[in-house]
Amino acid sequence: MTSDRIPEADFPRRPLGHWPTPLERCERLSALLGGPEIWIKRDDCTGLAVGGNKTRKLEHLLGRAVADGHTTVVTFGAVQSNHARQTAAACARLGLRCELLLTRSVPRADALYETSGNVLLDGLLGARVRFVTGPEDITAALDEIGPAYVIPTGGSNALGALGYVDAAFEFAEQAADRVSVDRIVVATSTAGTAAGLCVGLAEAGLRTRVEAVAVYRSVEETEAALEDLVAETAGLLGVAAPRGGRTVHGDWLGPGYGVATPEMTEAVRMFARAEGVLLDPVYSGKAAAALVGLVRSGRIGADETVVFWHTGGAPGLFVYPDDL
Ligand SMILES: *Cc1c(COP(=O)(O)O)cnc(C)c1O
């Protein structure tokens, strides 16, 4: 779904997903937590090779790549990057060559971690996977690959974030005659998702707050990334950057990116058993842990309505068997 505020002539888009993704009520989860009315926005169901939040960004990024005549796409991520996997799928769909430069940014090097889950799917989808260790390695790989459209980690530049401006409009239309939402809780790493939502919600005239849960870097670094990207995304669209209406939460990162926490494990089990919804250990599981923690500590009130924005990631479940 595209709003007229993102003109196709300026921002060519390649359709890759199934829109709108469902907005579903979670009555059993609400009852279990004794309070807020909880809904879930199913961006795990975007339809592209197990789905996830990168699909919306890729519609804009690859729209531009194809319009500019590129035939090769390069992107970056962790070994178990959902972004890399969705990029591989999107490239397959569009007949583009896909080169993935993956970094071992999680303290694990076991065979399961390096061969299963997303990285298994990358190969299946026809992408070329290279493990890289530093800037020199990356420069050498880029030289070898030659001319290509380069997508930053997580697809998070202003163009990618437009996918979540679209998403905010889609959500506003979906919620309009059904529910008035106080807050959205969403996992945040490179911040394109949260930034696009902040800009889009403001443009759609909604006052829904965004609770961005840091799962990758410190709260300060995540805030800085989010603020920059809100400004850049608004700038790209030629609208005013919204002020306020967002909070970054740092209490659910635990020891670091991709490292399991007891709160994550509890939340993943809770969503699975109360709602039949599969989260992931790296992103949505920690965001759900934040939702649970904010409700239990009264920071989200029992009379509020909250949307948990599911960003996908289920392939990651298969590489964390010991924690689940
Ligand atoms: C990439 C990713 C996120 C984070 O999105 P950003 O736009 O990078 O902040 C959240 N959840 C999942 C499952 C992801 O793959």
UniProtKB/TrEMBL annotation:
Keywords: Pyridoxal phosphate. Gene3D superfamilies: 3.40.50.1100. Pfam families: PALP. Residues 17-312 form the Tryptophan synthase beta chain-like PALP domain. GO terms for biological process: alpha-amino acid metabolic process. The keyword NAD does not apply. InterPro entries: ACCD_DCysDesulf (IPR027278), TrpB-like_PALP (IPR001926), TrpB-like_PALP_sf (IPR036052). One of its GO terms (molecular function) is D-cysteine desulfhydrase activity. The active site is at 81 (nucleophile). The modification N6-(pyridoxal phosphate)lysine is found at residue 54. The keyword Transmembrane does not apply. Its cofactor is pyridoxal 5'-phosphate. Belongs to the ACC deaminase/D-cysteine desulfhydrase family. This is D-cysteine desulfhydrase. It comes from Thermomonospora umbrina.
